[in-house]
Amino acid sequence: MPAVQSTRPVPPVAEVIPRGALRVAGIVLVAIVVAVAAARLGGFDTHAPDAAPVAQRALRFLDRPDGGIAVVDAATGETLDVVQGEQGFLRGTLRGFARERRRLEQSAQQPLDLIARADGRLTLADPATGRRIDLESFGPTNAAVFARWLVPPTALRRETTP
């Protein structure tokens, strides 16, 4: 038995999507681009205001000869921790701050500020460059990498003991 062929011709691709719909989509896209450009150029701030700080600590991160990173309290000079191993999020975050400091020709010796806010956000800020990272944006596990250095361990023990 011979194959049955359709008698209806296949419409060209241009006729599958009505021209009117394409025009409307194009107009919507142009309107969105214009609105975003007007907001950016007009100084519209999309960043939510920061909540009040509830805890803050200035930290220095020093490379060690063994490949580790020493975490030092900038106010006391006390070494809080020595981080070994891959530590991808920590190293990547610190690399970004170091790159920005080199670009702006700032000293690598100035500490970074670790700030806990009343709304639960955790911010790592560089006073030398003005750069900041809201750490909770990367999830609780990554934010916890830095949060452990915010409160001294002795203060934690006092809070948890009855």
Descriptive keywords:
single chain; 162 residues; alpha+beta; six-stranded antiparallel sheet; 21% strand
Record the SSE blueprint:
Layout: H1 13-16, H2 19-41, E1 53-63, E2 69-73, E3 79-83, H3 88-103, E4 112-117, E5 122-125, E6 132-134, H4 140-147, H5 153-160
Antiparallel strand pairs: 1-2, 1-4, 2-3, 4-5, 5-6
A few lines on this structure:
The chain has 162 residues and is α+β, with helices and mostly antiparallel strands. The protein has 5 helices and 6 strands.
Helical fraction: 25-40%
Number of strands: 6
By DSSP (H or I, 4+ residues per run), the number of helices equals 5
The main β sheet shows up as: 6 strands, antiparallel
Task: Report the portion of residues in β strands.
Answer: 15-25%
Encode the helix/strand succession as letters.
HHEEEHEEEHH
Shape: elongated
Gap from first CA to last CA: 90 Å
- Based on CA atoms alone, the radius of gyration comes out at 27 Å
Helix/sheet category: alpha+beta
Query: What is the residue-averaged pLDDT?
Result: 84
Biggest sheet strand order reads 3-2-1-4-5-6
Report the uncertain regions. Answer: 153-162
Tell me about this structure.
The protein is α+β, with helices and mostly antiparallel strands and 162 residues long. It is built from five helices and six strands; from the N terminus they run ααβββαβββαα. The longest helix is centred in the first third of the chain and has 23 residues, at 19-41. The radius of gyration is 27 Å and the shape is elongated.
